Amino acid sequence: MGGGLVVTATGGRSTDYNSKPTVYVFVLCLVASSAGALFGYDLGITGGVTSMPNFLEKFFPSTYAKNQEHQALIDGGEIANNPYCTYNDMKLQAFTSTLFLSGLVFAIIANWSTKWYGRRFTMITAGAAFIVGAFLMAFAQNLPMLVVGRAFLGWGVGFANQSAPLYLSEMAPAQLRGALNIGFQMATTLGILVAGLINYGTQHMDKPGQLAGWRLSVGLAIVPALVLFFGGLLLPDTPNGLISRGKVQEGRRVLERVRGTKSVDAEFTDICEAVEVSKAISGKWRALFSKKYRGVLAVSVLIPFFQQFSGINTIMFYAAELFQVLGSGQNSSLLNTVIIGAVNVASTVVAIVMVDRFGRKLLFVEGGIQMLVCFIAVAAIMGASFNTQTGHIANGPAAAIIVFECLFTAGFAWSWGPLGWLVPSEVHSIETRSLGMSIATCSNFLFSFIIGQWYLTMLCSMEYGTYIFFAFWVVMMTLYVIFFLPETKGVPVEEMGFIWRRHWFWKNVIMTPAERAAFEKGDVTATGMTAAEIEGDLPGKASDAAVPQVARLSMAGEYVKPANAPEALGAVNTINTDYKV
Ligand code: BGC
Known about the structure:
Elements: E1 4-7, H1 23-49, H2 53-59, H3 61-74, H4 90-116, H5 119-138, H6 143-171, H7 177-202, H8 213-219, H9 222-234, H10 239-244, H11 248-259, H12 265-280, H13 284-288, H14 294-309, H15 312-325, H16 330-358, H17 360-385, H18 395-413, H19 416-426, H20 430-462, H21 465-484, H22 496-502, H23 506-510, H24 513-521, H25 531-537, E2 552-553, E3 559-560, E4 573-576
Bound molecules: beta-D-glucopyranose.
Protein backbone atom coordinates (compact mmCIF):
# COMPACT_ATOMS: atom_id res chain seq x y z
CA MET A 1 0.00 0.00 0.00
CA GLY A 2 1.54 3.29 -1.01
CA GLY A 3 0.79 5.83 1.70
CA GLY A 4 0.63 9.22 0.04
CA LEU A 5 0.35 11.82 2.74
CA VAL A 6 0.01 15.34 1.47
CA VAL A 7 1.98 17.81 3.48
CA THR A 8 4.35 20.62 3.14
CA ALA A 9 6.36 20.98 6.24
CA THR A 10 9.73 20.39 7.72
CA GLY A 11 11.04 17.50 5.69
CA GLY A 12 8.15 17.25 3.27
CA ARG A 13 9.80 19.92 1.19
CA SER A 14 12.89 17.84 0.53
CA THR A 15 11.74 17.21 -3.05
CA ASP A 16 12.04 20.96 -3.64
CA TYR A 17 15.69 21.07 -2.61
CA ASN A 18 18.06 22.28 -5.26
CA SER A 19 20.98 20.20 -4.23
CA LYS A 20 23.21 19.15 -7.03
CA PRO A 21 26.56 18.05 -5.64
CA THR A 22 29.26 20.69 -6.21
CA VAL A 23 33.05 20.35 -6.31
CA TYR A 24 33.12 22.81 -3.41
CA VAL A 25 31.06 20.55 -1.15
CA PHE A 26 33.35 17.61 -1.95
CA VAL A 27 36.43 19.66 -1.01
CA LEU A 28 34.80 20.76 2.27
CA CYS A 29 33.85 17.20 3.11
CA LEU A 30 37.31 15.93 2.27
CA VAL A 31 38.88 18.40 4.70
CA ALA A 32 36.33 17.57 7.41
CA SER A 33 36.96 13.85 6.88
CA SER A 34 40.58 14.32 7.91
CA ALA A 35 39.08 14.21 11.42
CA GLY A 36 38.26 10.54 10.75
CA ALA A 37 41.81 9.93 9.56
CA LEU A 38 43.11 11.28 12.87
CA PHE A 39 40.78 9.05 14.84
CA GLY A 40 41.91 6.04 12.78
CA TYR A 41 45.58 6.95 13.04
CA ASP A 42 45.31 7.08 16.83
CA LEU A 43 43.42 3.78 16.96
CA GLY A 44 45.96 2.10 14.71
CA ILE A 45 49.21 3.48 16.03
CA THR A 46 48.70 2.37 19.63
CA GLY A 47 48.57 -1.39 19.17
CA GLY A 48 51.72 -1.45 17.05
CA VAL A 49 53.72 0.86 19.28
CA THR A 50 52.84 -1.11 22.42
CA SER A 51 54.30 -4.23 20.82
CA MET A 52 57.65 -2.52 20.07
CA PRO A 53 60.42 -3.62 22.46
CA ASN A 54 62.19 -0.26 22.74
CA PHE A 55 58.90 1.47 23.58
CA LEU A 56 58.05 -1.16 26.19
CA GLU A 57 61.54 -1.04 27.66
CA LYS A 58 61.32 2.72 28.19
CA PHE A 59 57.81 3.02 29.63
CA PHE A 60 56.68 -0.47 30.66
CA PRO A 61 59.80 -2.32 31.88
CA SER A 62 57.93 -5.18 33.58
CA THR A 63 55.94 -5.96 30.43
CA TYR A 64 59.19 -5.74 28.50
CA ALA A 65 60.78 -8.32 30.82
CA LYS A 66 57.83 -10.69 30.38
CA ASN A 67 57.98 -10.15 26.64
CA GLN A 68 61.68 -11.04 26.58
CA GLU A 69 60.97 -14.13 28.62
CA HIS A 70 58.27 -15.09 26.17
CA GLN A 71 60.62 -14.61 23.24
CA ALA A 72 63.24 -16.78 25.00
CA LEU A 73 60.63 -19.45 25.49
CA ILE A 74 59.85 -19.43 21.79
CA ASP A 75 63.56 -19.96 21.19
CA GLY A 76 63.45 -23.09 23.34
CA GLY A 77 63.64 -21.80 26.92
CA GLU A 78 61.46 -22.80 29.91
CA ILE A 79 58.06 -21.23 30.43
CA ALA A 80 57.49 -19.26 33.62
CA ASN A 81 54.21 -17.47 32.85
CA ASN A 82 51.02 -18.25 31.03
CA PRO A 83 51.73 -16.82 27.56
CA TYR A 84 48.18 -15.45 27.45
CA CYS A 85 49.30 -13.12 30.26
CA THR A 86 52.38 -11.70 28.55
CA TYR A 87 50.79 -8.31 27.97
CA ASN A 88 48.52 -8.21 31.00
CA ASP A 89 49.68 -4.85 32.31
CA MET A 90 47.17 -2.29 33.59
CA LYS A 91 49.52 0.60 32.85
CA LEU A 92 50.11 -0.54 29.30
CA GLN A 93 46.37 -0.83 28.78
CA ALA A 94 45.90 2.60 30.35
CA PHE A 95 48.14 3.98 27.60
CA THR A 96 45.60 2.71 25.07
CA SER A 97 42.46 3.54 27.01
CA THR A 98 43.17 7.06 28.40
CA LEU A 99 42.50 8.41 24.93
CA PHE A 100 38.87 7.32 25.26
CA LEU A 101 38.42 8.45 28.82
CA SER A 102 39.46 11.94 27.91
CA GLY A 103 37.58 11.66 24.58
CA LEU A 104 34.42 10.84 26.51
CA VAL A 105 34.58 14.01 28.59
CA PHE A 106 35.36 16.15 25.56
CA ALA A 107 32.56 14.59 23.52
CA ILE A 108 30.13 15.97 26.13
CA ILE A 109 31.79 19.39 26.06
CA ALA A 110 31.64 19.24 22.24
CA ASN A 111 27.84 19.36 22.45
CA TRP A 112 28.08 22.92 23.82
CA SER A 113 31.08 23.87 21.75
CA THR A 114 29.34 22.96 18.47
CA LYS A 115 26.21 24.77 19.61
CA TRP A 116 27.75 27.99 20.92
CA TYR A 117 30.84 28.36 18.76
CA GLY A 118 30.02 26.18 15.76
CA ARG A 119 31.09 22.94 14.09
CA ARG A 120 34.04 24.62 12.38
CA PHE A 121 35.45 26.06 15.62
CA THR A 122 35.13 22.65 17.28
CA MET A 123 37.01 20.93 14.46
CA ILE A 124 39.81 23.55 14.48
CA THR A 125 40.14 23.13 18.25
CA ALA A 126 40.32 19.35 17.72
CA GLY A 127 43.17 19.88 15.23
CA ALA A 128 45.04 22.08 17.74
CA ALA A 129 44.60 19.54 20.57
CA PHE A 130 45.91 16.80 18.26
CA ILE A 131 48.99 18.88 17.41
CA VAL A 132 49.79 19.40 21.12
CA GLY A 133 49.11 15.71 21.88
CA ALA A 134 51.28 14.39 19.04
CA PHE A 135 54.09 16.74 20.06
CA LEU A 136 53.98 15.68 23.73
CA MET A 137 53.97 12.00 22.81
CA ALA A 138 56.77 12.23 20.27
CA PHE A 139 59.02 13.90 22.86
CA ALA A 140 57.78 11.98 25.92
CA GLN A 141 60.45 11.35 28.55
CA ASN A 142 58.31 9.51 31.07
CA LEU A 143 54.94 7.84 31.50
CA PRO A 144 53.05 10.91 32.83
CA MET A 145 54.13 12.93 29.79
CA LEU A 146 52.96 10.12 27.56
CA VAL A 147 49.60 9.92 29.32
CA VAL A 148 49.08 13.70 29.18
CA GLY A 149 49.83 13.49 25.45
CA ARG A 150 47.16 10.79 25.11
CA ALA A 151 44.71 12.97 27.04
CA PHE A 152 45.23 15.80 24.53
CA LEU A 153 44.63 13.35 21.70
CA GLY A 154 41.44 12.35 23.55
CA TRP A 155 40.39 16.01 23.50
CA GLY A 156 40.96 15.99 19.77
CA VAL A 157 39.05 12.76 19.20
CA GLY A 158 36.14 13.84 21.44
CA PHE A 159 35.74 17.15 19.63
CA ALA A 160 36.40 15.74 16.16
CA ASN A 161 34.11 12.71 16.37
CA GLN A 162 31.18 14.74 17.61
CA SER A 163 31.55 17.68 15.23
CA ALA A 164 32.86 16.20 11.97
CA PRO A 165 29.96 13.76 11.35
CA LEU A 166 27.55 16.62 12.14
CA TYR A 167 29.44 18.90 9.76
CA LEU A 168 29.38 16.28 7.01
CA SER A 169 25.68 15.54 7.43
CA GLU A 170 24.74 19.20 7.40
CA MET A 171 26.93 20.13 4.44
CA ALA A 172 26.15 17.09 2.28
CA PRO A 173 23.25 17.26 -0.16
CA ALA A 174 20.50 14.92 1.07
CA GLN A 175 21.01 12.26 -1.60
CA LEU A 176 24.71 11.91 -0.74
CA ARG A 177 24.38 12.03 3.03
CA GLY A 178 24.80 8.29 3.63
CA ALA A 179 27.83 7.95 1.37
CA LEU A 180 29.53 11.07 2.75
CA ASN A 181 28.86 10.01 6.32
CA ILE A 182 30.52 6.67 5.63
CA GLY A 183 33.36 8.75 4.14
CA PHE A 184 34.22 9.56 7.77
CA GLN A 185 34.52 5.83 8.58
CA MET A 186 36.45 5.35 5.34
CA ALA A 187 38.95 7.97 6.51
CA THR A 188 39.07 6.21 9.90
CA THR A 189 39.98 2.87 8.31
CA LEU A 190 42.58 4.55 6.07
CA GLY A 191 44.08 6.15 9.17
CA ILE A 192 44.30 2.72 10.83
CA LEU A 193 45.97 1.23 7.74
CA VAL A 194 48.49 4.05 7.34
CA ALA A 195 49.33 3.76 11.05
CA GLY A 196 49.93 0.02 10.57
CA LEU A 197 52.22 0.68 7.61
CA ILE A 198 54.15 3.34 9.50
CA ASN A 199 54.58 1.04 12.50
CA TYR A 200 55.80 -1.65 10.15
CA GLY A 201 58.37 0.78 8.73
CA THR A 202 59.56 2.27 12.03
CA GLN A 203 59.74 -0.88 14.16
CA HIS A 204 63.41 -1.48 13.45
CA MET A 205 64.52 2.07 14.15
CA ASP A 206 66.08 1.38 17.52
CA LYS A 207 69.82 1.73 16.99
CA PRO A 208 71.65 3.83 19.60
CA GLY A 209 71.80 7.44 18.51
CA GLN A 210 68.94 6.90 16.07
CA LEU A 211 65.50 8.46 16.52
CA ALA A 212 63.38 5.73 18.16
CA GLY A 213 60.83 4.38 15.68
CA TRP A 214 57.91 4.74 18.06
CA ARG A 215 58.60 8.48 18.38
CA LEU A 216 58.23 8.86 14.65
CA SER A 217 55.07 6.70 14.68
CA VAL A 218 53.28 8.76 17.33
CA GLY A 219 54.71 12.08 16.10
CA LEU A 220 53.45 11.63 12.54
CA ALA A 221 49.90 12.13 13.82
CA ILE A 222 50.84 15.77 13.37
CA VAL A 223 50.36 15.50 9.58
CA PRO A 224 46.57 14.88 9.55
CA ALA A 225 46.31 17.20 12.58
CA LEU A 226 47.80 20.06 10.56
CA VAL A 227 45.41 19.30 7.68
CA LEU A 228 42.45 19.48 10.05
CA PHE A 229 43.71 22.65 11.76
CA PHE A 230 44.69 24.70 8.70
CA GLY A 231 42.00 23.15 6.50
CA GLY A 232 39.49 23.97 9.23
CA LEU A 233 40.54 27.64 9.17
CA LEU A 234 39.54 27.78 5.50
CA LEU A 235 36.21 25.98 5.95
CA PRO A 236 32.97 27.90 6.38
CA ASP A 237 30.68 26.83 9.22
CA THR A 238 27.54 24.92 8.24
CA PRO A 239 24.40 26.88 7.36
CA ASN A 240 22.59 25.09 10.21
CA GLY A 241 25.28 26.07 12.73
CA LEU A 242 25.34 29.68 11.53
CA ILE A 243 21.57 30.09 11.50
CA SER A 244 21.19 28.59 14.95
CA ARG A 245 23.68 31.17 16.22
CA GLY A 246 21.64 34.00 14.68
CA LYS A 247 23.84 34.51 11.60
CA VAL A 248 20.96 33.95 9.23
CA GLN A 249 22.21 35.87 6.20
CA GLU A 250 25.68 34.34 6.40
CA GLY A 251 24.03 30.92 6.70
CA ARG A 252 22.09 31.55 3.53
CA ARG A 253 25.21 32.70 1.67
CA VAL A 254 27.08 29.52 2.67
CA LEU A 255 24.12 27.38 1.62
CA GLU A 256 24.02 29.07 -1.80
CA ARG A 257 27.73 28.53 -2.22
CA VAL A 258 27.79 24.83 -1.26
CA ARG A 259 24.72 24.06 -3.36
CA GLY A 260 26.06 26.11 -6.28
CA THR A 261 22.79 27.99 -6.83
CA LYS A 262 20.81 30.96 -5.54
CA SER A 263 17.55 29.00 -5.44
CA VAL A 264 17.85 27.38 -2.06
CA ASP A 265 14.58 28.69 -0.58
CA ALA A 266 13.13 25.30 0.33
CA GLU A 267 16.20 23.97 2.10
CA PHE A 268 16.92 27.34 3.72
CA THR A 269 13.42 27.57 5.15
CA ASP A 270 13.56 23.96 6.38
CA ILE A 271 16.74 24.74 8.26
CA CYS A 272 15.25 27.92 9.73
CA GLU A 273 12.14 26.05 10.85
CA ALA A 274 14.08 23.15 12.25
CA VAL A 275 16.26 25.57 14.21
CA GLU A 276 13.14 27.33 15.53
CA VAL A 277 11.53 24.06 16.60
CA SER A 278 14.66 22.86 18.30
CA LYS A 279 15.09 26.19 20.10
CA ALA A 280 11.52 26.05 21.29
CA ILE A 281 11.99 22.79 23.10
CA SER A 282 13.57 23.45 26.41
CA GLY A 283 15.15 20.90 28.73
CA LYS A 284 16.50 18.67 25.96
CA TRP A 285 18.31 16.36 28.35
CA ARG A 286 15.07 15.68 30.16
CA ALA A 287 13.18 15.28 26.88
CA LEU A 288 15.58 12.66 25.63
CA PHE A 289 14.92 10.55 28.72
CA SER A 290 11.14 10.68 28.39
CA LYS A 291 9.15 7.79 26.93
CA LYS A 292 8.70 9.46 23.58
CA TYR A 293 12.40 9.23 22.87
CA ARG A 294 13.06 5.80 24.39
CA GLY A 295 13.68 4.15 21.02
CA VAL A 296 16.17 6.75 19.77
CA LEU A 297 17.89 6.90 23.15
CA ALA A 298 18.31 3.11 22.97
CA VAL A 299 19.95 3.54 19.56
CA SER A 300 22.31 6.26 20.87
CA VAL A 301 23.48 4.12 23.76
CA LEU A 302 23.16 0.55 22.49
CA ILE A 303 24.46 0.74 18.94
CA PRO A 304 27.88 2.09 20.05
CA PHE A 305 27.88 -0.31 23.03
CA PHE A 306 27.26 -3.27 20.75
CA GLN A 307 29.75 -1.94 18.21
CA GLN A 308 32.46 -2.08 20.85
CA PHE A 309 31.30 -5.33 22.47
CA SER A 310 31.50 -7.03 19.08
CA GLY A 311 35.17 -7.24 20.07
CA ILE A 312 36.48 -5.34 17.02
CA ASN A 313 39.00 -3.41 19.07
CA THR A 314 40.55 -6.55 20.48
CA ILE A 315 41.81 -6.74 16.89
CA MET A 316 42.36 -3.05 16.11
CA PHE A 317 44.19 -2.30 19.37
CA TYR A 318 45.85 -5.56 20.20
CA ALA A 319 46.17 -7.83 17.12
CA ALA A 320 49.96 -7.37 17.14
CA GLU A 321 50.10 -8.40 20.81
CA LEU A 322 47.87 -11.43 20.16
CA PHE A 323 50.08 -12.62 17.33
CA GLN A 324 53.11 -12.23 19.57
CA VAL A 325 51.37 -14.20 22.31
CA LEU A 326 50.78 -16.91 19.73
CA GLY A 327 54.47 -16.93 18.95
CA SER A 328 54.79 -14.81 15.79
CA GLY A 329 57.82 -12.57 15.73
CA GLN A 330 57.32 -8.81 15.99
CA ASN A 331 57.85 -8.35 12.27
CA SER A 332 55.14 -10.74 11.16
CA SER A 333 52.80 -9.55 13.93
CA LEU A 334 52.93 -6.04 12.53
CA LEU A 335 52.59 -7.35 8.99
CA ASN A 336 49.43 -9.24 9.98
CA THR A 337 48.10 -6.00 11.41
CA VAL A 338 48.70 -4.29 8.06
CA ILE A 339 46.85 -7.09 6.23
CA ILE A 340 43.88 -6.73 8.59
CA GLY A 341 43.98 -2.95 8.07
CA ALA A 342 43.83 -3.38 4.29
CA VAL A 343 40.84 -5.75 4.58
CA ASN A 344 39.17 -3.15 6.81
CA VAL A 345 39.55 -0.40 4.17
CA ALA A 346 38.45 -2.56 1.22
CA SER A 347 35.38 -3.86 3.06
CA THR A 348 34.27 -0.34 4.01
CA VAL A 349 33.91 0.37 0.28
CA VAL A 350 31.39 -2.48 0.18
CA ALA A 351 29.34 -0.66 2.83
CA ILE A 352 29.33 2.56 0.80
CA VAL A 353 27.99 0.72 -2.24
CA MET A 354 25.44 -1.43 -0.41
CA VAL A 355 24.05 0.71 2.40
CA ASP A 356 21.46 2.69 0.42
CA ARG A 357 20.60 -0.24 -1.83
CA PHE A 358 20.07 -3.13 0.59
CA GLY A 359 19.38 -1.23 3.78
CA ARG A 360 20.99 -1.06 7.19
CA LYS A 361 19.34 -4.09 8.78
CA LEU A 362 20.47 -6.58 6.16
CA LEU A 363 24.08 -5.43 6.50
CA PHE A 364 23.85 -5.48 10.30
CA VAL A 365 22.48 -9.03 10.35
CA GLU A 366 24.80 -10.45 7.68
CA GLY A 367 27.81 -8.79 9.34
CA GLY A 368 26.72 -10.09 12.75
CA ILE A 369 26.41 -13.71 11.58
CA GLN A 370 29.78 -13.52 9.86
CA MET A 371 31.43 -12.06 12.98
CA LEU A 372 29.81 -14.70 15.19
CA VAL A 373 31.08 -17.60 13.08
CA CYS A 374 34.58 -16.08 12.94
CA PHE A 375 34.97 -15.57 16.70
CA ILE A 376 33.68 -19.06 17.47
CA ALA A 377 36.23 -20.38 14.97
CA VAL A 378 39.05 -18.31 16.53
CA ALA A 379 38.15 -19.58 20.02
CA ALA A 380 37.98 -23.20 18.81
CA ILE A 381 41.29 -23.06 16.95
CA MET A 382 43.09 -21.28 19.77
CA GLY A 383 41.64 -23.65 22.37
CA ALA A 384 42.58 -26.73 20.37
CA SER A 385 45.94 -25.74 18.92
CA PHE A 386 47.71 -23.25 21.16
CA ASN A 387 50.04 -25.03 23.51
CA THR A 388 50.39 -22.85 26.60
CA GLN A 389 53.22 -25.04 27.88
CA THR A 390 55.47 -24.38 24.92
CA GLY A 391 53.89 -21.04 23.99
CA HIS A 392 53.60 -22.30 20.45
CA ILE A 393 50.96 -22.80 17.79
CA ALA A 394 51.54 -24.64 14.51
CA ASN A 395 51.67 -22.62 11.31
CA GLY A 396 48.37 -23.97 9.92
CA PRO A 397 46.15 -22.99 12.88
CA ALA A 398 48.03 -19.69 13.25
CA ALA A 399 47.26 -18.85 9.63
CA ALA A 400 43.63 -19.90 10.14
CA ILE A 401 43.35 -17.47 13.07
CA ILE A 402 44.61 -14.65 10.86
CA VAL A 403 42.14 -15.60 8.12
CA PHE A 404 39.23 -15.62 10.58
CA GLU A 405 40.31 -12.29 12.09
CA CYS A 406 40.36 -10.87 8.55
CA LEU A 407 36.89 -12.26 7.82
CA PHE A 408 35.64 -10.89 11.14
CA THR A 409 37.08 -7.48 10.26
CA ALA A 410 35.46 -7.60 6.81
CA GLY A 411 32.06 -8.43 8.35
CA PHE A 412 32.46 -5.55 10.83
CA ALA A 413 33.68 -3.11 8.20
CA TRP A 414 30.60 -3.44 6.00
CA SER A 415 28.15 -3.44 8.88
CA TRP A 416 28.75 -2.36 12.46
CA GLY A 417 31.77 -0.17 11.65
CA PRO A 418 30.14 2.49 9.47
CA LEU A 419 26.58 1.86 10.66
CA GLY A 420 27.71 2.24 14.26
CA TRP A 421 28.19 5.94 13.47
CA LEU A 422 25.64 6.42 10.69
CA VAL A 423 22.52 5.03 12.37
CA PRO A 424 22.80 7.04 15.63
CA SER A 425 23.28 10.17 13.53
CA GLU A 426 20.16 9.62 11.43
CA VAL A 427 17.41 8.21 13.68
CA HIS A 428 16.86 11.36 15.74
CA SER A 429 14.42 14.13 15.04
CA ILE A 430 15.93 17.57 14.82
CA GLU A 431 15.35 18.52 18.45
CA THR A 432 17.50 15.71 19.87
CA ARG A 433 19.92 15.03 16.99
CA SER A 434 22.98 16.91 18.23
CA LEU A 435 22.58 15.79 21.82
CA GLY A 436 21.90 12.25 20.61
CA MET A 437 25.18 12.32 18.69
CA SER A 438 27.05 13.48 21.80
CA ILE A 439 25.55 10.61 23.76
CA ALA A 440 26.42 8.12 21.01
CA THR A 441 30.03 9.37 20.89
CA CYS A 442 30.29 9.14 24.68
CA SER A 443 28.85 5.66 24.69
CA ASN A 444 31.29 4.59 21.98
CA PHE A 445 34.26 6.00 23.87
CA LEU A 446 33.15 4.62 27.23
CA PHE A 447 32.99 1.09 25.87
CA SER A 448 36.17 1.58 23.78
CA PHE A 449 37.82 2.55 27.07
CA ILE A 450 36.53 -0.60 28.77
CA ILE A 451 37.77 -2.86 25.98
CA GLY A 452 41.08 -0.98 25.75
CA GLN A 453 41.62 -1.24 29.49
CA TRP A 454 40.53 -4.83 30.10
CA TYR A 455 40.94 -6.97 27.00
CA LEU A 456 44.50 -8.08 27.77
CA THR A 457 43.45 -8.87 31.34
CA MET A 458 40.48 -10.87 30.03
CA LEU A 459 42.76 -12.72 27.66
CA CYS A 460 44.99 -13.58 30.63
CA SER A 461 42.16 -14.97 32.74
CA MET A 462 39.64 -16.29 30.18
CA GLU A 463 42.20 -17.26 27.53
CA TYR A 464 40.47 -18.33 24.28
CA GLY A 465 37.12 -18.12 26.12
CA THR A 466 37.44 -14.34 25.66
CA TYR A 467 36.21 -14.82 22.10
CA ILE A 468 33.18 -16.79 23.28
CA PHE A 469 32.36 -13.83 25.54
CA PHE A 470 32.36 -11.49 22.54
CA ALA A 471 30.46 -14.04 20.41
CA PHE A 472 27.68 -13.91 23.03
CA TRP A 473 27.39 -10.16 22.58
CA VAL A 474 27.34 -10.53 18.80
CA VAL A 475 24.24 -12.75 19.20
CA MET A 476 22.61 -10.13 21.45
CA MET A 477 23.27 -7.26 19.06
CA THR A 478 21.98 -9.19 16.08
CA LEU A 479 18.75 -9.99 17.94
CA TYR A 480 18.40 -6.32 18.92
CA VAL A 481 18.71 -5.27 15.28
CA ILE A 482 16.22 -7.89 14.08
CA PHE A 483 13.54 -7.07 16.64
CA PHE A 484 14.07 -3.51 17.84
CA LEU A 485 15.74 -1.44 15.16
CA PRO A 486 13.55 0.08 12.44
CA GLU A 487 14.96 0.19 8.91
CA THR A 488 16.08 3.72 8.06
CA LYS A 489 17.11 3.22 4.44
CA GLY A 490 15.66 5.88 2.18
CA VAL A 491 13.80 7.68 4.99
CA PRO A 492 14.50 11.43 4.98
CA VAL A 493 15.87 12.34 8.39
CA GLU A 494 13.05 14.75 9.08
CA GLU A 495 10.54 11.94 8.61
CA MET A 496 12.09 9.45 11.03
CA GLY A 497 9.12 9.97 13.37
CA PHE A 498 7.01 7.73 11.12
CA ILE A 499 9.17 4.65 11.38
CA TRP A 500 9.24 4.77 15.17
CA ARG A 501 5.50 5.24 15.34
CA ARG A 502 4.96 2.28 13.02
CA HIS A 503 7.37 -0.11 14.72
CA TRP A 504 5.62 -3.13 16.30
CA PHE A 505 7.31 -2.59 19.66
CA TRP A 506 8.19 1.08 19.93
CA LYS A 507 4.75 2.38 18.90
CA ASN A 508 3.38 1.13 22.21
CA VAL A 509 6.21 2.69 24.16
CA ILE A 510 6.35 6.13 22.61
CA MET A 511 2.65 6.86 22.07
CA THR A 512 -0.31 6.83 24.43
CA PRO A 513 -3.38 4.89 23.18
CA ALA A 514 -5.03 8.20 22.23
CA GLU A 515 -1.98 9.31 20.28
CA ARG A 516 -1.84 5.93 18.56
CA ALA A 517 -5.44 6.29 17.47
CA ALA A 518 -4.73 9.77 16.12
CA PHE A 519 -1.66 8.51 14.33
CA GLU A 520 -3.52 5.64 12.74
CA LYS A 521 -6.16 8.08 11.49
CA GLY A 522 -3.43 10.07 9.78
CA ASP A 523 -3.51 13.06 12.10
CA VAL A 524 0.20 13.62 11.78
CA THR A 525 2.76 16.20 10.83
CA ALA A 526 5.34 15.61 8.17
CA THR A 527 7.67 14.49 10.93
CA GLY A 528 5.33 11.71 11.98
CA MET A 529 4.36 13.40 15.26
CA THR A 530 0.68 13.65 15.95
CA ALA A 531 -0.72 17.17 16.16
CA ALA A 532 -1.80 16.32 19.72
CA GLU A 533 1.78 15.52 20.64
CA ILE A 534 3.07 18.77 19.20
CA GLU A 535 0.51 20.92 20.96
CA GLY A 536 0.10 19.04 24.15
CA ASP A 537 2.49 16.80 25.87
CA LEU A 538 5.74 17.33 24.07
CA PRO A 539 8.30 16.98 26.83
CA GLY A 540 9.70 20.37 27.63
CA LYS A 541 6.66 21.64 25.70
CA ALA A 542 7.20 23.63 22.52
CA SER A 543 6.52 27.31 23.05
CA ASP A 544 3.23 28.60 21.62
CA ALA A 545 5.14 30.84 19.27
CA ALA A 546 6.88 27.88 17.69
CA VAL A 547 3.89 25.61 17.26
CA PRO A 548 2.20 27.49 14.40
CA GLN A 549 5.44 27.30 12.46
CA VAL A 550 5.20 23.55 12.28
CA ALA A 551 2.93 22.77 9.39
CA ARG A 552 0.59 19.90 10.08
CA LEU A 553 -2.46 18.13 8.89
CA SER A 554 -5.67 18.67 10.71
CA MET A 555 -7.81 15.69 11.72
CA ALA A 556 -9.57 15.90 8.38
CA GLY A 557 -6.28 15.84 6.53
CA GLU A 558 -6.55 19.49 5.63
CA TYR A 559 -3.25 21.29 5.22
CA VAL A 560 -2.50 23.93 7.82
CA LYS A 561 -0.01 26.42 6.51
CA PRO A 562 2.55 27.78 8.96
CA ALA A 563 1.67 31.36 9.82
CA ASN A 564 4.94 32.78 8.60
CA ALA A 565 5.86 30.35 5.83
CA PRO A 566 7.24 32.18 2.81
CA GLU A 567 4.72 32.39 -0.04
CA ALA A 568 7.16 30.67 -2.37
CA LEU A 569 6.73 27.54 -0.31
CA GLY A 570 3.01 27.26 -0.77
CA ALA A 571 3.35 24.29 -3.14
CA VAL A 572 2.14 21.03 -1.68
CA ASN A 573 4.32 17.96 -2.03
CA THR A 574 3.62 14.31 -1.61
CA ILE A 575 5.88 12.33 0.63
CA ASN A 576 6.06 8.62 0.90
CA THR A 577 5.03 7.50 4.35
CA ASP A 578 4.83 3.81 3.60
CA TYR A 579 8.16 2.91 5.11
CA LYS A 580 8.96 -0.66 5.81
CA VAL A 581 9.93 -1.17 9.43
C1 BGC B 1 34.95 2.06 15.63
C2 BGC B 1 36.32 1.89 16.18
C3 BGC B 1 37.02 0.82 15.38
C4 BGC B 1 37.03 1.16 13.91
C5 BGC B 1 37.63 0.07 13.08
C6 BGC B 1 35.02 2.40 14.17
O1 BGC B 1 33.74 2.52 13.65
O2 BGC B 1 34.26 3.07 16.34
O3 BGC B 1 36.25 1.56 17.55
O4 BGC B 1 38.35 0.68 15.83
O5 BGC B 1 35.71 1.38 13.48
O6 BGC B 1 37.61 0.39 11.73
